[in-house]
Amino acid sequence: MPLRLSTCIGALSLVAALGVTAASAAVPVIQQLGSGDQTVLERRGSFGIGLGWNAEGLPAISAIDPRGAAAIAGIEIGDVVLRVGEQTVEGAEQVQRERVFAVRAGAPIKVAVRRNGVARTFIVTPKEAPSGSLGGAGVVAGSVRTPQGLARTFVSVPNDLGRNEKRPAVFLIQGSPCISIELQPGPSWMRRVLQPISDAGYVTFRVEKPGVGDSQGVGCAACGFEDELTAYEAGLEQLLSLDFVDPERVVIFGFDIGGMVAPILASDAPVAGIATFGAPIRSWHEQLMHRVRSAFESTGSPQFAVEDRMLDARALLSKIFSDDATRVEILDRHPEFDELLSQTLIGSRSPAYHRQLDRRNVAAAWEGVLGPVLLLHGEFDAMTPLDESRRIADMLNEFDSGRASLIVLPGMDHLTTVHGSALQARQRPGQGDTTDALTRTFLVWMEGLVAREVHPPIR
C-alpha cells in the first residue's frame, strides 16, 4: 500500500529533506503520498555539533557543522561543554536521558563551555535539524504512531531510484542505550555502518526510540522494552509497505539488543533474513550480570573489590527482577543503591525495561525465524560473550544446516572498533581503530541473499 502522510512528513518537506541533488529521486516517492491524517512530528532544534570525549574524559565538541548554529555562535571543536541552558552536561548517556539538547528551533539558549581552561558562555539559536545525507542518497524524516505517541523514522532513498523501481532495504536496529540514531556531524559508528550499505544502492531505515530525539514519549530512560518494541513493529510495517521497497528483500540488521529484537520482529513478519552484531540469546538477567561484571573489571580494580561491588549489584538486580517497583520506589527503600543506578548499565534503563526484556524468550523467537541469518561477533567483545552467537548458530543449523553463518571479526570490540588485545578493548571500548570489515562482510552476505531465487514465506 502507498506510504500515507500519517506515517511520513509532507511532500514539500520531503523535497527539502532530500535536498536539491536528490530531487529527482524524490519524485516517485512523493507520488506515493496520499491524503489522510496530516499529523506531522515536529523536528527538534539542531546545534550542528557532534559530542565526544576529550583526553581528560570530559564531554567536548568533537565535530561541528561550519554552517550550524553552534559554529555561528562562536563555539569551536575541542570546547568542553559545561551547561546547556540550566542543565549541566555530564556525559553522553545523561545528555540523551535528560534530553539536554532537545530544544526548539529558533529559541536562543545559553551554552557554557570551557576553552583552554577559561569558561565562556555563548548564545546559540538552534536551527531546524536536517535529516542528514548518505552520499548518493537523501534521507527522509518520517514517523510512525505508537502508544507512546509518534516515533521518528529515517529512511534513505538512493538518488538513482527509478520510477516504479523497488529496492532491497535494510532495517537497522540499535542497542539499549538512550542515544539517538540520528546522523550527527562528523564520524560515528552509525555512519560507518549506514554509508556503505546506502552506497551499495540499498534503502536504509531507522526508528528512534520513544522519548529520544524527535520521538514523543515519557523519555527513553523511563519507558519499557515493550514500548520500544511497538515502535520497531510499526516501523517494520511501514518499511514493508513502501512502494519503492521490495518487500521480499527486506533484512533486519540488529546491533546488541537490536539483535534480540530482530528475531522477535521476524517471527511475525515476512523478512528475507536477519543479520546481527554482538547479539545475546540467553536471559537478560544473565546478560546484565555479565555486563556489569565486565564494566567493574575494566576499571582495573583488584578482584576482591570487583566481587564486593558484584554483591551490591546482585542485591539490586534481585530487587529489580523480583518486584514491580520503579526506580524512585527502589531508591526510597534502598538509598544505598543510588551509586549503582547512577553509574552502571543497570540504571541506564528503567526497572520495567529490564523486567520486560528478561521475560522475553529470545531463543523461542529464533525458532520462528525462517530466512537466512548472519551472526557477526567481535573477537574482543567484552559485553556479549562469543558463546551467545555460537548458541544461535548451532540452534538454527541443527534443523537447517548452513542457514546461519557465524563470522568472528578479528580484534573488534562491542562498539565496532578494533584493538590489538582483549585488555585494550575492555579498557577503551569504542576508542580503537575504525575498520570497514563489518560492513564489507555484511554486504557480501547481503549480495548473496538478494540474488536468491527463493523468496521468504508469507505468513
Q: Report the span from N to C terminus.
A: 18 Å
Q: Helical element count?
A: 16
Q: Percent of residues in beta strands?
A: 15-25%
As residue ranges, the low-confidence spans are 1-38, 455-459
Helix content: 25-40%
Characterize the main sheet: 8 strands, mixed
Averaged pLDDT, please? 84
Tell me the strand order in the biggest sheet: 9-10-12-11-13-14-15-16
What is the approximate shape?
globular
Overall strand count:
16
Structural class from helices and strands? alpha/beta
Q: Report the radius of gyration as a whole number of Å.
A: 22 Å
Outline of the structure:
This protein is of the alpha/beta class and 459 residues long. The chain contains 16 helices and 16 strands. Helix content is 35%, strand content 21%.
Describe this structure in words.
There is one protein chain. The chain has 459 residues and is of the alpha/beta class. It is built from 16 helices and 16 strands. The strands form 4 sheets. Strands 9-10-12-11-13-14-15-16 form an 8-stranded mixed beta sheet, with helices on both faces. A hairpin with a 5-residue loop joins strand 2 and strand 3. Helix 1 packs antiparallel against helix 2. The N terminus and C terminus are likely disordered.
List the main descriptive attributes of the protein structure presented here.
459 residues, alpha/beta, 8-stranded mixed beta sheet, 4-stranded antiparallel beta sheet, 16 helices, 21% strand, disordered N terminus
Topology of helices and strands:
Layout: H1 11-18, H2 23-30, E1 45-46, E2 49-53, E3 59-64, H3 69-73, E4 80-84, E5 87-88, H4 92-97, E6 109-115, E7 118-124, E8 127-128, E9 137-146, E10 149-158, E11 167-173, H5 189-199, E12 203-207, H6 225-241, E13 245-255, H7 258-266, E14 273-277, H8 284-297, H9 303-322, H10 327-333, H11 338-343, H12 351-358, H13 362-367, E15 373-378, H14 386-399, E16 404-409, H15 422-427, H16 437-451
